[in-house]
Amino acid sequence: MVTLHRGKHYILNNERIVPAGGPAAGMAAEAATNPAEADSAALSQEEGRKQTLTWKVLENHNHSGDMEHLQIRFDSMGVYDNTYVGILQTAYASGLKEFPMPCVFTNCHNCLGAVGGTINTDVHKYAESACKKSGGIFVPPHEAVIHQYMREMIINSGDMSIVSDSHTRYGTQGSLSIGEGGPELAKAMLGKYYEIDYPEVIAVFLTGTPKPWVGPMDVALSIIGKVFRNNFVKNKVLEFVGPGLKSLSMDFRNGIDTMTTESACLSSIWATDERTREYFEIHNRPEGYRKMKPGNAALYDGVVEVNLDSVVPMIALPFHPSNAYPLADVIADPEYYLGLVEAEAGKVFENNPDIRLDLKSKIVDGKIKVDQAAIAGCAAGSFENICAVDQIARKLDNGLGTFPLNIYPASQPIMYELNRAGVLNDLMGYGARVKTAFCGPCFGASDAPGNNDFCIRHSTRNFPNREGSNPATGQIASVALMDSRSIAATAFNGGYLTSAETCPVEFEIPEYHFNGKIYENIVYNGFGKAKPETEIVYGPSIKDWPEMSGLTENLLLKVASVIRDEVTTTDELIPSGETASHRSNPYKISEYTLIRKDPAYVGNAKAMQVYEKARINGDRNKTAEFYRVLKSAGVETPVEELMGNTGIGTVLYAKRPGDGSAREYAASCQKVLGGLANICIEYATKRYRSNCVNWGILPFTSPEPEISLAVGEYVYLPGIRRAVEEGATAVEATVIGTDGSTRKMELELKDVTEAEKKVLLAGSLINFYKEA
Fold first, then answer.
1. Peptide bond before residue 319 is cis, with ω within 30 degrees of 0
2. Domains in the chain, start-ordered, CATH in brackets?
3. Per residue in 427-453, pLDDT tens?
4. Quick one: which of 447, 491, 509, 538 has the most CB atoms within 10 Å?
5. Alpha-carbon gap, residue 113 to 129, rounded angstroms
């Protein structure tokens, strides 16, 4: 199904893969020239690199004059109600007057107004008033999930957009767009550059045609399962090319594209064609289309070859999209595969010994009985996807009984057209629960299953507890990811895990008509029409960021948590579902930091924060209690001097933190609680590292594969401010054990740019802009 080609390769004439070097360069040169120039010199690798779509788009958006170190200015941006309050507060505190480009505010995460009382609606009113004041685009709740609105109304071929969500993927329209944390969005709102080194580019070379019972999630999981754990595409751009592309509809492409985030890539872009042009015409934006294809000899840093003919229905078992297996294998041997999940759960919940996942109890007469299903959001809520579910329902012609199947079309225009075509009537008649556009099932804010339930979802992630369970109260549940076609086959087969291959349907998708009047009648489009006299509407739960200190000359940090999992997700750093309504209140949401992974973290951090507040307030006696440990390290500096030059805080150690969401709260909550550094082997994603830097959290890495830190130990960093100022890439720390013993530890500060250096010294991006 999927073959990896390591090292540099050419894609010649969009037809074949050729390794770079040797005779390949000559072949590439021949392919790259017209017949009259067939005897031209061999194409250089640098010229081949410039033939990629990625190069062309980045070159058009780069303002640095140096293609190795990019300064990007975007064409549009998007934020949503989980993130936009903090982003706007940062931007307004830094001088925002008017949005410099179209900025979309959707309300697709905190849409259940009863959660937290008036919090969610207060947040929506805040954003609506900000859009009027500064010229934004306000999309009311339940109208569209953010990525669907961006695709339908904003993105053009050749564009770059930045959105405060990790699943920002508009590559199918020929756009190279990026999901980032809030501070990067604030920078874009202020007209600042997005700085990044030129990324490596991986071709996804598609051949063949998917079988009728295979959907976009099956293709996506096949890729993710092959590339995630070996970091084959980590922080790189995926460029989709090849003859198989023409066999895929735009909805099918979008379904694959959204899921590329789970491969750990930076972004994605697809060659465009007639289907892309039709998509723009359907959405009344023909001027947004541009024909985009790589040159005849484009050079890539690796190739993921996908034979669509051979893709089979897949399932990603808990607790990660990369746990991908052929669905038929899991159905054939449920004891083995569910046993794998139970064993993994033992590792995931090792700090919660009272929690036990019992999935083997779901095996009934040799078959897996599923408890719940959902089809939702940017990955699954498309017109074509839901039509396919309906046609499987009609073929099987069974009611659901009490089995819960929840379906969320991704926008009101899609829902309108499904209704007009009779699809929704069919599905509701069979017992499906059709709901309005909402991202809730993706992050545990709706349709949370019961304790020990096993669910299937066509959504983006199946991280631990992301489905809504709360291990702090003894709850556990799990989600497997599947394509909507196999979910429909399962749901209408009594809830027994079933592959769509067993009920093949020759799908006939009705022609789609986009009703743009829906948005015209409800969306506020203030771009270019700012009304600065507008007063921002504040609710009682909207709180500003706390004051933050700049980086002191030295730091004394207490280890507040040690996480030795191979990867720590942002869901584990700060939960997704139960915190959503509190994201306008940095103090309230910080109470949930690491609650699923290390419930002791918040108390540990707060206990140390008392001493930093005492230092700032000049309380010598209280501060002196903390500084006593420095005597073990031979530091005899008077307390008064230490109070002026040695900051107090906490440090988190995790092997590879930050896989998953772009949410800045994974970092900002640590800072609110006094966290001043992370130590890790490597950062799971660029966006999490960026969030740490933008909140003034030192992004240390270690050259050692394992660090022997323990909770309660101290890390003393003398001269850390000077080290950052001078661009040091390595610093020596002293670890002070709980028994007073000391040892040296080498830490790295790799790849800190000049801009990042200034933010770290200021103590946060907010401070930096205030000082500028």
1. yes
2. 2-71+197-310 (3.40.1060.10), 74-192 (3.30.499.10), 315-320+329-511 (3.30.499.10), 554-771 (3.20.19.10)
3. 999 999 999 988 888 888 888 899 999
4. 491
5. 18
